[in-house]
Amino acid sequence: MAEGLRAGTPEHKSGHVIRDSSLGLVPETLQPVIDLQAAMWHQASIGPAVMEMLRLRSARTVNCVFCKSVRYDIALADGLTEDKVEQIDDDFAASALSAREKLVLAFADLYLRTPGEVDAALGVRLRREFTPEQLAHMAIGLTTFHALSRCAVSLGGMPESLPVTQMSVAV
Amino acid sequence: MSGTSPSPLDSFSLTAALGRPGGELARRHEVLWHSLWQQPHVSAQILELCRLRLAQLHGATRELAVEPPAGLCAGLDAGKRAILLSGNWTRDARLSAAERAALEFAEVYGQDPGAITDELAAAVKAHFSDAGLVALIEALGVIDGRIRLGMMIGELLPPGGSHG
């Protein structure tokens, strides 16, 4: 890790964390990314705490140091605690997380590891616990976070570690 | 697959499956999806080659069988599609250096983005500039994600995306 960033950043700085990143070099996709993220945090039927669990599970699987270090304040306000965050690891099934939270992470692992192998029993449990709207929102949130984490890793310049940092959603 | 009624989708039919239950989030995801195919830095033809390669890596047979809607990407040259699907793209001189650079990047991205090297990124930038590298990475991420969702979400959402 810790090679240099593989793409530049916009010359003009706006103070917006996404606009000032390399993503700002592609204005055609920049606003769609920002608008989608805003909707995921503020309009998703599953709420910010669940959204953050999906984001962190993806970040830890992809090993994006930047993404792993961030905690969105909107998720903390929604009840996510650092104690819960620590349990979002490969042993989450045996953790003290609630059954619903474990299902959220099982959904994430299905997407992240074996999307072509939907276990019938897991499918039944997911459909029983979540509405179609909630499942769709979990899917859109997870796939977007996953793409952004992979984007950060692909662009390089990743440090070995970073301290946990609270952030607000950039809109 | 152990589901009782497999309903594989693909990155294009996903639009209808997510649209109704997903509401505003699905609409915004579609805006991003379309913007990636329409941005000017990396052609839709090259993204289509990369979509097919990512589908191969996922073993996504339905994804490999479909072609993008005309409004998203004008049809890929049949010969290039055949080259990609044959598995001989690394040796076939009918692919341009730019197409090869994008595909070589996609090949590693699809398996482990942490294994991408400065050399792979530099080869992409030599053809597409810094903005092109970013656009390609963004597109690969969304394409990869829609392939994954296509493989699984049909098992979880009601047919046609209806509630109930």
Number of helices of chain A: 8
Structural class of chain B: mainly alpha
Helix residue percentage of chain B: 55-70%
Low-confidence stretches of chain A: none
Distance between the termini of chain B: 24 Å
CATH superfamily of chain A: AhpD-like
Poorly predicted runs of chain B are 1-6
Helix amount of chain A:
55-70%
Oligomer: heterodimer
- Supply the CATH architecture of chain B: Up-down Bundle
The overall pLDDT of chain B, averaged over residues, is: 91
**Element-by-element helix/strand order of chain B:** HHHHHH
| Helix-strand topology string of chain A | HHHEHHHHHE
What composes the largest sheet of chain A? 2 strands, parallel
Q: How many beta-strand runs of chain B? A: 0
Q: What is the distance, rounded to the nearest whole angstrom, between the alpha carbons of the first and last residues of chain A?
A: 30 Å
CATH topology of chain A: AhpD-like
Report the radius of gyration of chain B as a whole number of Å: 16 Å
